Amino acid sequence: MKVLFIVHEYYPVGSAITNCLKPLIDNMIKNNIEVFILTKNTNNNLKQEEQLDNVLVIRSFDRYNYLLNKRDNATNKLIKLVYKVKFHLLWKSLFKNNLDGMYSIKDMLKTGKKTIKKHNIDRIISCSAPFTTHVIASSLLTKKTRWFAYQFDPYTYNYTLDSSLKNKRLEKELFYLNKANKIFLTEESYRENIKTELSSLKDKYFVIPYPLIKEKIIQNVNYINNKTIIISYTGTLYKGIREIGNVLNILKDTDFFVKIYCFADQYSIDLLKQYKEILKDRLEVKYHTTKEEADNLLISSNIIINIGNSILNQTPSKVYELISLCKPIINFYSNPFDTSKKILNDYPLCYNVDVNNYDINELKSFCLLNRDKILSFKEATSNYLKSDEVANIFLKEVINENR
Predict the structure, then answer these.
(1) How many Cβ atoms sit within 10 Å of the Cβ of residue 392?
(2) Which residues of the chain does CATH 3.40.50.2000 include?
(3) CA dihedral in degrees (216, 3, 155, 104; nearest 10)?
(4) What CATH code is assigned to 230-381?
(5) pLDDT by residue (tens digit) across 55-64?
(6) Positive or negative CA dihedral for 311, 315, 318, 323?
């Protein structure tokens, strides 16, 4: 069997989606399935094709990113300006906040058709966001191929998007995903969808958790002194989705050291600068770090921070990675129906903090009491499906699907 994944980006450019896909892909290779990745080329220094960990990664030419990464001679500066104006005036006005992705679909389709024909592809797995991956997949179908749409993020009912375009998103989601053989999605998205017009896709839905719970090498912290507690957060920060302000406002009233390695929007960057002035040496911030750096930070910290999403039908994949670390977790949330809170209810070493109603002394006590604790992997993960278990379920569905 030969499987083609269509994704927005792939290694060495990482993302939450690529991290989730890796265990699934590794399991396919282990079972003698050939795997191909179709993605867009986001960097002119990346090869159009290359073999990465037994996966053939095929990068489609992307005009916009190609121009943005070219040298700044006078001609290129003019071309870049034209493209930027075109994007801001045309694209954003038509597809504002639509999670469609900045794609040259024509180039992706051309590369995809060539790949399917050359390598005799049996299965196509498109992964969103952006939703464009599904649009591309639907246009690449042949009589032989089966198509699986994997929705990591909600599309129609994504409440951070422009509500005036919801009906257009619904029409688009129904039109394209009706062509899919199966739709993989999280439990939270499934529960939301079957209460809406998307319930017509119910027979295609297959609920599957993220395959990110796997045993890691954990180490104790080398303390500066007996009073030092290092509390760390890694991940993305966005205004209105995952905000850091309330977290730092609470932690400023402790004497803990806070380390944040993140990708952040300008709103979050400005907040972090403000709190750097308040916390001074107790706050360390790094932007655009590698996954390895972020993982090493979490492994070497006493306490790990999770920040709940504002989107209640979206499951943050990061939570499952944090569980694998077997360390104390503080989950900061503002909505009582927070999805992270629900997932972490089965984790034995978690303290949930309602940012609007909290007890700072209880928070301090949790940190002081658990600063040295590391659970056994079995104890930490007994209530969850492990990465290899999820990967086997996923593979079985992909192999056994018939038209």
Answers:
(1) 16
(2) 2-212+388-400, 230-381
(3) 110
(4) 3.40.50.2000
(5) 999 988 665 5
(6) positive
